[in-house]
Amino acid sequence: MKQTNILLACAAGMSTSFIVSRMMESAMDSEEVGRIWAVPADDIEYESDYDIVLLGPQISSIADVIRKKVDPEIPVLVIPQDLYGKCDGEAILRLALEQSGEKPAAAEPEAEKDPEPQKEQKHPRLSSFSEILRNSFRMIMPLVFLGSVLSLLNGLPVAAYQQFIETAGIKNYLTFPARFIYGYFSVYLAFAAGYQTARISGARRKAAGAGMFTVLVYFLICPWDNYLAWTDQNGVFAAILCGLFVGGLFSYAEKKNWCIPISSLPQNLLDTYNQCIPGAAALVAALIIHVLFTLTPYGDFQNAITILLRAPLHMIGANLFGQIALSLASGILWFFGIHGGNVVMPIYTLLFTNLQMENLLAFQNGLPLPHRIIGYTLSIGNGSLPLVLCMLLFARSRSNRTISKTALIPSLFGVDEPAYYGYPMIMNPVFLVPWVLGTSLIPSIGTYILQILGLLPNHSGVLTQFVPPFVTNFTAYGWSGVFWGFVLLGIMIMINYPFVKKYDRSCLEEEQEEKDEVR
Description:
The protein is mainly α and about 525 residues long. About 65% of the residues lie in helices and about 5% in strands.
């Protein structure tokens, strides 16, 4: 008997990992099921040996794009919201087995013949730009995370600990790697941006070459006598622009078949030589840009980008109002079932990375933290945790309590989809105010007020992901952050209370009606 291999995907592969564990429990004794695993949606094209693809409902808007990346014979299904929210592994597994032998509708392959998508890919569209930006920062996230850990270990404000690491000679070993991680942050980002632009725009085999030539171009557009001033977080905007340009050039060369006409050479060697053509074009363009900007009042390309682009954007968006607006936009998008983080976080990162890293470097060196607003606040969970806790404390309906128990652990670790789709919170007007408005306004305004009153220090710049909020608050603000984080969480639970009682009352009525019908 041929076993069915099932691939699941969501934005980052986190929430579907919880679904995978439930499906594997249900498939433990089944001979029909082979491998079940989860990946980020962007990585589907690198996977193989699957018989069906199941997508989380939060990425249903790109289901057609994903269908074009996989074999036309393989079904691509969006998991129903109710099953996804309940993490109903048994029902999802049954759905996958039923549909794995079904061929996709005949109309879908025809859509692939439409030439329009190929024309649009010549230059990155807005959606492609967002994907490039998101994937570029995600690509260097392991470096950022490691640097945050090293900075935390180096700058932990405990006198006895600091004396110990200095006396033992450990402090230099913590400082030096972090210095290279953050001192060359823009260089790493330039490689990632060039790589991701080429990959997404159709030159996947040459993506690594595009990344390397982007680094070369990045150094060439810097002022040659002082390039080290721009290799850290100050060069983020230029790094992204260089990546878009070089990656796009590699993609254009691929589409136009720029190649060396020597068919007798091995293909691998030809691929290497052929990358030199767009690489040389990028090099010449970078030299021309460097010369032209030396003739302007700005002096160099980096300085021009700072004055004309980065400074105005920071003035408009890198403040309390920009922080609240972006958080609110993410919540509104999620309310309508669109993955708000995927849309908003690239903008968030561009605006606030510079401020976050300046705080991190100051924290590492034991200096006063320069910025109060860096885009991050006291954590009360990503969005669902206050509601889940409120439901556990006050809900009486069987359905709400069941969903809350299922969603608690994921929401503690920043995976909100079980709650978003389980209650559901998405498209549920009862939760619009506490969820969208509350989680956007309370953490930002509350953190700001506490800092003004001197009850909370500035954010250390240390970033943590997929950990409980009290861990995030400790690494960011110390013990005062842990205390005030619990206070804000309590306030949010109180704000959720009347809405939870109203919704729970309607659920109890529905459950009673179902019991009466059975009788």
